[in-house]
């Protein structure tokens, strides 16, 4: 009779000896695969959003040209030229490539020496001055979103920016347009605070 504490074994057909059974997927592997899947889905969603935004922008430009009578082509002729001409096909390929690469280059991470606790006021002021408001806050993280629907729309609803504490560094992560502006503002606020404390 097999003892309860003994691991399950299988026979090796080549040598007739018993070999340990294959271990099941660990919880760490499951979490890693889940994170990988979520990251991939997020990347695809961002690409699709940007593609739709570029298409909408193109349609708006075409509509304005028709309304102002600056277009010599009808809507059907414009669409036909876009699909059939070499220039139009190059434009379509460029839009697809831009959409595919947008998530890779459209989101950045910036770091600055500081403390979430000690420099909380400067962080809040930097975000508020750039049109963001705090939505969540903990000991090691602050999360901000755009404070108006119009700003959220211009950022394709990818307006969430996270600020975390990494050692002695403040890390700001999110959409490039938002992070770059906030980071520049925060740098000046922190520099001013350091000069005042000297």
TrEMBL record:
The keyword Membrane applies. The chain crosses the membrane at residues 50-68, 88-108. Residues 1-23 are annotated as: Disordered. It comes from the Bacteria. Residues 1-12 have a biased composition (Basic and acidic residues). Keywords: Membrane, Transmembrane, Transmembrane helix. This is Uncharacterized protein.
